Amino acid sequence: MNVLIATDKPFAAEAVNSIREVIENAGFQCLLLENYKEKSQLLEAVSDANAIIIRSDIIDAEVLNVAKNLKIVVRAGAGYDNVDLNTATANNVCVMNTPGQNSNAVAELALGMMVYAMRNFYDGSSGSELSGKKLGIHAYGNVGRNVARIAKGFGMEVYAFDPYCPGEIMEKDDVKQVNSAEELYSDCQFISLHIPATAETKNSINYTLLNKMPKKALLINTARKEVINEPELVKLMEERTDFKYVTDIMPSNHEEMSSKFGKRYYSTPKKIGAQTAEANNNAGIAAARQIVDFFKTGNQKFRVNK
Ligand code: 3PG
């Protein structure tokens, strides 16, 4: 079996070694395509692969159709909006993710970005603290739960909205459950986004919702840029000079955002939420093990396409 690691944004070297070990110990061959610049490199590399481990790499119909021997794609991470699930299913390719494996890394970054924004991007002026402030977590999955745990250490009051998460989970974590996004945004000065990019959520973070946030609002996005209605965020930030936005996913209108809202806006140059040695190891090794298990025992526990 040929297992290709195809990562435009490479894993830490130690993670690649560990992934390789899992693959080779199973008697499979490990191929590596890192830091590629052209789609043609990916198309060439997948042509012999029986399995692929990816991150945010785009696996569209063109890629799936040239990968004639492909049986499984594992997204080493949570969100799989970068994979064309319909074509994968039509081509009889199993798609999996590795839920939870990089969530602490993303959550730590979300809190780090809150401190950074509230200390005025470390410009030396007097900022404010997280302690005692209300944090609203929009979607209470693996990342949201880690954000809640860490935010409590900062002394924040934590609220969450997630129609797919049973209330008992929030109750057990001592997080206040609210019943609508509108209520969450109205109550909380800080909102941390953890929703996936789906047909339902794309552009859903809009002017009306954001304008409900109290004074000195801070929106933190470590999820996906597609969930934000970008023109409406611009309109809101033009009207509300108390509103700050920090994001780990550079918006399509980054130049406009920086020039208009320099002191109230920050984007990382490249998505770094899951870019830690620990998260790379956890997600990469999990992906390799899932592939080995899939071929040896048929296990499809983390399959996301039906
Ligand atoms: C995820 O969905 O797991 C995160 O957004 C991390 O993505 P990355 O592997 O591209 O850094």
Structure notes:
Helix 4 (85-90) links the parallel strand 4 and strand 5 (94-97). This protein has 2 domains: 2-101 and 275-297, Rossmann fold (3-Layer(aba) Sandwich), CATH 3.40.50.720; 103-267, NAD(P)-binding Rossmann-like Domain (Rossmann fold, 3-Layer(aba) Sandwich), CATH 3.40.50. By secondary structure, the protein is of the alpha/beta class. The protein is elongated and about 55 Å long. The chain has helices spanning 13-25, 39-46, 61-66, 85-90, 103-118, 142-153, 167-172, 181-187, 207-210, 230-239, 254-261, 277-297, and strands at 2-7, 29-34, 51-54, 72-75, 94-97, 134-138, 157-161, 176-177, 190-193, 218-221, 244-247, 265-267. The protein contains 12 helices and 12 strands. The model has no long low-confidence stretch (mean pLDDT 98). Strands 8-7-6-9-10-11-12 form a 7-stranded parallel β-sheet, sandwiched between helices. 38% of the residues lie in helices and 17% in strands. Helix 5 crosses helix 6. The structure holds 3-phosphoglyceric acid. Residues 9, 55-56, 77-79, 102, 271, 273-275 line the site of 3-phosphoglyceric acid.
Give me the secondary-structure topology:
Layout: E1 2-7, H1 13-25, E2 29-34, H2 39-46, E3 51-54, H3 61-66, E4 72-75, H4 85-90, E5 94-97, H5 103-118, E6 134-138, H6 142-153, E7 157-161, H7 167-172, E8 176-177, H8 181-187, E9 190-193, H9 207-210, E10 218-221, H10 230-239, E11 244-247, H11 254-261, E12 265-267, H12 277-297
Parallel strand pairs: 1-2, 1-3, 3-4, 4-5, 6-7, 6-9, 7-8, 9-10, 10-11, 11-12
Helix pairs in contact: 1-12, 5-6
The structure holds 3-phosphoglyceric acid.
